[in-house]
Amino acid sequence: MLRLISTYFIFVNLFNLVFAQSPGGVNTSLKAWYKSNGSVTTTGTTITAWNNEVSGGVNLTNTKGVPVLSASNFNFNPTATFDGDDVIANQSVTGDNFITSTTNTSFIAFTSAVPGSTAAVISKWDETGNSNQNRISWEITNTGFLRFDFPISPTPNFTSATTITNQSFIGSASTTSTLDSLRLNGLLEGVRNYSPATSDPTKTGRFQIGANYSNLSFPFNGNIGEVIFYNAVLNESQKRRVESYLALKYGITLGNTANPITYLASNGTTVMWNGSPVFQNNVAGIGRDDNSSLLQKQSRSSNASPNNIVTMSLGPIQVSNAANSSTIATNRTFLVWGDNNASVVPNSTDVPSGILEKSQRIWRVKETGTIGSVRVRFSLGSTALAPYNVDFQNVRLLVDGDGVFGTGATTISPTSYNNATDEVEFDYNFSDGNYFTLGFVNVPLPIDLISFTIAKKNNNNELFWTVKDAHELVQSIVYKSADLQNWTKIGTIESSSSSQIIQNFNFTDQHHSPHVVYYRLETVDLAGNRRKSKWLSSTFESNLNSVQIEENEASFRILNNSQETIHVKIINYNASVSQEFELIGSTSTEFGDLLKPGIYLAVLSSSNGELMVRKIIKY
């Protein structure tokens, strides 16, 4: 008898554990839950069946085309990928497997690859032969809006106010007898009053994902993470729990800075992320929530670069979440981050000792429970940060408790870096409420680039550079920018086959703008290795067009190309004058060893009162 009772309790506990696993921990009235990292059967990578996570629910086993299960396409999670010619379905099922006649709630997590180009069915149940009378569907219109239909499709269609771009989205919708409501990424898109809004769920029809099964009409092109149906109207807390689960899992930001949204765990009380009017951008996180069957061990925002440059992981970052063998010891433990959406370009404001500049983009961390040390990767190749450091071992992670980095910030050196891919990684144990960003320390020129200078000649910019080990050099590529973010290739200089160890090169840019312009080089050697120089700048100001300021890593100099006397003040970062002198007619002053490394302002004034102020960095 004791053994029988023990077995009974073990069975009950296992049953409760399995039953409790549901989207956001919300299992009441759950009818259908299709998730790409769930019960999906494949032959190779081709999906042959997509089974319902709800016991006794409808499974999808009829396919056309080649729907594919991609292992890590959706924030390191698997995703069902449809290329515009695929569908998976159950051809004969009554509507009450998904809905009631009036009260329903549905969710979907997806990415559209070709938004706005053609109408598409993401998922739909409709009555056979009478689809306009009994249906519930998620679609994209041919004008690029998310469309939700229940029970029929009146004119005008009920669509989102937001255009569906090729980023990732969470759709959530509810129905009653009088209205439909639609939300996108947690924000209300609209409410449609339609009475009587009733359906007949006893009718038989098809449930399909990816297109209309009958003729492959309205095919969807993109990724689908999950499709969820409840045959009841969820309350606000329940909706937010499901949305929060999907958001954390797929790296999708709920809300925005104008309408910040707090993420809730499956118990409805534990906060994963506090909605922020500043940092509600590119929110992503790792965490464990057993009731949601959630164990996200590595994560990044699903938004496009440069908004997804941060990846965090338990241990080394793997190709997929499943491949990461680490775990989180305690249920409902999370580490979530979001950024201020500022420019990634660094400046010299609020920097700690030993740091020359820091990125203007700042991230804030919310830790619930204890995650421990994580690996943090910055992928900088497609951002404006790459030109600022040739060697990424000279990048630093800055962590601060109050967001004022100039005092009290912790400086962390890289764990690893890759100059070829412009990636740098750090290990750090964050605390709740930490802020972090990237700092840049004093670094030399690349060892194969001895010098890189600029001179003015006939209103053109003449670039000069000298390369060491030139016999290994294949070519030098010259880039130009007006803002240090967008770089344009303006020339390629092929190297000769000379056996000289040191070689000189030059390039002329016909530049006539009165504004600052920036240049940098990329050298390519025989092995295909590429190395980037830091930028240098040239200014020909219209109010002091006789004066030229040249700047590079090693030094800067001021040239007076006229007979006029120019008064110069060099002011340091503490607002005291470091140097003061006059340039009298066709003279120049070069600052090599005259000033210590740091940040300065060069204030130039002419006899007629014209003024020019430039920030200069002395390395």
Describe the 3D structure.
The protein is mostly beta strands and 619 residues long. 5% of the residues lie in helices and 46% in strands. It contains 2 helices and 48 strands. Strand 42 and strand 43 form a beta hairpin. The radius of gyration is 30 Å and the shape is elongated. The model is unreliable at 1-19 and 443-447 (pLDDT under 50).
Unreliable spans are 1-19, 443-447
Q: How far from one another are the termini?
A: 82 Å
Number of strands: 48
Instruction: Report Rg.
Output: 30 Å
The averaged pLDDT comes out at 84
Q: How would you characterize the largest beta sheet?
A: 9 strands, antiparallel
User: Helix segment count?
Assistant: 2
Shape call = elongated
Keyphrases for this structure?
single chain; 619 residues; mainly beta; 9-stranded antiparallel beta sheet; 8-stranded antiparallel beta sheet; 2 helices; elongated; disordered N terminus
Summarize the structure.
Helices cover 5% and strands 46% of the residues. It has 619 residues and is mainly beta.
